[in-house]
Structure formats: structure tokens, C-alpha cells
Amino acid sequence: LPITFPQITRLGVETLVERLARRQEHHLALQICRHKKIKPEVVMVHWACERIMRGDDLNDQQLHNLIVERLPPRGVSFSDIASTAFNQNRPELAKLLLNNEPKASDQVSLLISMEEDKRALSKALESGDTDLIYLALLHIQKQRSMPDFFQAVLRHPAARDLMINYARTQDPQLLRQLYQALDQPHEVGTYTIQEAYKISDLSRRRKGLEAAQTLFNQSKEESAKTMAKMTEDQLKLLEAQVELEHTTGREVFLDTSLSETVRLCFVHNQHKKGNKLAKDLKMSEKLVWWLKVYGLAEGHDWQEMDKLSRERKVPPIGFEPFVEACIKEGRMDEGAKYAAKVADMSNRGELYIRMGMYRDAAEAAVQAKDTDLLATIKSKATAPADIAFIENLISHSM
């Protein structure tokens, strides 16, 4: 039908071009595009889709070649053309055409809708786009059996690593299954431990730790041996914590670290059990001394703390921690006994300052010949008697 100039003006050239294409006047539509400098891609895509729907006697490869020869290599949405081919029950032609699509996202999306899961994953991996890879992987997981899913994932290292990262934060059960499929018992063991500590029921937690220990022992990884021993130690610690809570009637031991458990033993007068636990789990001597000192101080067992300080001529950790623990508990009288045994006079003076014992601090500073420390002590002292004592000490000693 003829069209007037006012009608063209009202419709716009782009609409005119689209209507011509729908009437199969593709050649005329392209001439108008060239004349008006309009992008011709819409017309070309329409022509290609029409050729596919018309069918002719061309096979898939011939029709693909014809379309590719006529269309420019860039700017054309081959995914739209491929979608038409798929809708016309020509899946092989659709796949051929889709190879010409420059946008990986369009390729992957259409392949997924075509149920070409493995091909979609392959294209996503080629693109290097993490979001596309996840899109393909999660679709395969949803649509396929778990064996098929694992087969698809494990074939590609990049897909495997991404799926492990996803499962680690989103799907713990899937993470366990992935590690099992990868024949990595040590990783399954690590996961089992994490899950075990989420369980409040101690019997089930114990079984989870025992299962993890078995998995570590099955692994050929060198680090798994260490993990197996650490899990064994955790089982011993759990048993000790359960027993301690039963003995003391205090629910303070469970879910604490080994160091905290040992310290609490000395807080709650469980000295033998604390020593045994430290020995069985091979804790360092100095750490155990620290834990004993602070535990006894918190438990206000000053008599036992005094006995501990006399076990050695000089404790492995020195006397300073004894003073620190007493200061923390507000017992300066107890702290003074141990401060007097600190060999370094400057350190002794600093400790006396912290306890407000300025005369003792000044005497230590004089013995250390530490003028800076003396000046600090003098500036901190406020009682007239203390100030007079310090000034007299300075005048006779320095």
C-alpha cells in the first residue's frame, strides 16, 4: 500500500523500516537504512529469522553459512537468530548460530534454556565471568542428578574451585559431598569438626569428632596426621571439660580453649586435674606457670600461690607475673611480697609504683641508680611524708 509523506513523518523512519521488514521488503528497508544512516541490524536479524522460519530445502550447515555470509560479524544479535532456530525445532542450527554470538552472557543464557547444560558451562568458563559460571553450575545442580552434577564440576578445575567457595558459605552439606567426590577425606574431616562444634548435644559432638579423626587417619596428606592428633587432643579436652563441670557444679569449662580450661582448674581448686591436663596435652612449661599464677590469683588462693612461688628459686616466668596477677585482683599486700623478689631494680620500682608504694619504689630506683625513675616517682607521690622520704633518700644517695 502506498504511504504519504505526512504518514512517514508521523511514524518515524525506524518504524517504517520495521514495517517493511515485516512485509518481507528487507532489501528496500536496508536501502532506507543506508540512506538515512540508520543501523541495519534489526532488518538483518529479521531477515535471518524469516529465512529460518521459511525453512527452504537448506540443511542446518547450509542455512548457517548463508546467514553468516549475509550478516556483518559485529553488531548483530546472533542469540536472537539462534533462539528462533531453536523455537523452530532446529537445535543444531541454533548451536551453530550461537557460536557467532559475541556476548557470552547471551550465549550461556540461551544454552541453558535449550538444556545444553554442559555446553553452557563450557562457554561460561571460556568467558572467565564468575557470575556466568555460577549461573551455569547452579542450573546443572538444579536440573541434573548429583552424580551428573559432580561429573560436570570435577571435569573443570575452575568450576570445582568456584563451587567449593560457594558451598563453603552457602551449602555446607554440598561442601561435604564435593570433598567426598574429590576423594579428600582430610577436607571432609575439617568440615565435620566445624559441624560438630555447632551441636550442643555432647554425645553427638563426640561422635562427630571421632568421625573426623577417622577421616584424617584415612588421608594421605601429611597435614592430616597433625589434624588427627589435634582432634584426638580435642576429644581428651572435651572429656576433661565434661568431668570438670560435673565435679565443680560450674558450667564454665565447656567450649573454652585448652589454656582457659587449665586456668579455670586453678581458679576452682582443681589443681591436680589442671596439672594432668597440661601434662597429657603437652603444654609448654612457661605457659602452664602463667595459667597457674593467674588462676590462683583469681581464685584468691594466696597460700597455694605462695607455695608455687617457692617451688623454684626463680620461677621460669620470673616473679613479675605474680605481682601483675595480684595487682589485677587488687591485692597489693600480696603483690608486695613478690615485687621484693624481682631481681631487676628498675622493674621492681615500676611495679611498686603501680601498687602505690612510692617509698619502696624510690629505694629500688636508688639501687638501680635510675634518675629518670626517681623523677617519675617523685612526680607521682602526693603524700607529704612520701615526698619528704623520697627527697631525703635522693639527698643522701645520689
What does this structure look like?
- The chain is mostly helical.
- Helix content is 75%, strand content 0%.
- The chain is built from 26 helices and no strands.
- Helix 21 (320-328) packs parallel to helix 23 (345-354).
- It is elongated.
- The model has no long low-confidence stretch (mean pLDDT 86).
Order of helices and strands: HHHHHHHHHHHHHHHHHHHHHHHHHH
In oligomeric terms, what are we looking at?
Answer: single chain
Overall helicity: over 70%
Q: Kindly state the mean pLDDT as a whole number?
A: 86
Strand content: under 5%
Report the C-alpha radius of gyration, rounded: 40 Å
Class computed from helices, strands and strand pairing: mainly alpha
SSE topology sketch:
Elements: H1 5-11, H2 13-22, H3 26-36, H4 41-54, H5 60-70, H6 78-87, H7 91-98, H8 104-113, H9 117-127, H10 130-143, H11 146-154, H12 157-170, H13 172-181, H14 185-196, H15 202-218, H16 222-248, H17 258-267, H18 271-280, H19 285-298, H20 302-309, H21 320-328, H22 332-339, H23 345-354, H24 358-368, H25 371-380, H26 384-397
Helix pairs in contact: 2-3, 2-4, 4-6, 5-7, 6-7, 8-9, 9-10, 12-13, 13-14, 14-15, 15-16, 17-18, 17-19, 19-20, 19-21, 21-22, 21-23, 23-24, 24-25, 24-26
Considering the chains and any ligands shown, give keywords for the structure.
398 residues; mainly alpha
Task: Give a short summary of the structure.
The protein is an all-alpha fold. It is built from 26 helices and no strands. The chain has helices at residues 5-11, 13-22, 26-36, 41-54, 60-70, 78-87, 91-98, 104-113, 117-127, 130-143, 146-154, 157-170, 172-181, 185-196, 202-218, 222-248, 258-267, 271-280, 285-298, 302-309, 320-328, 332-339, 345-354, 358-368, 371-380, 384-397.
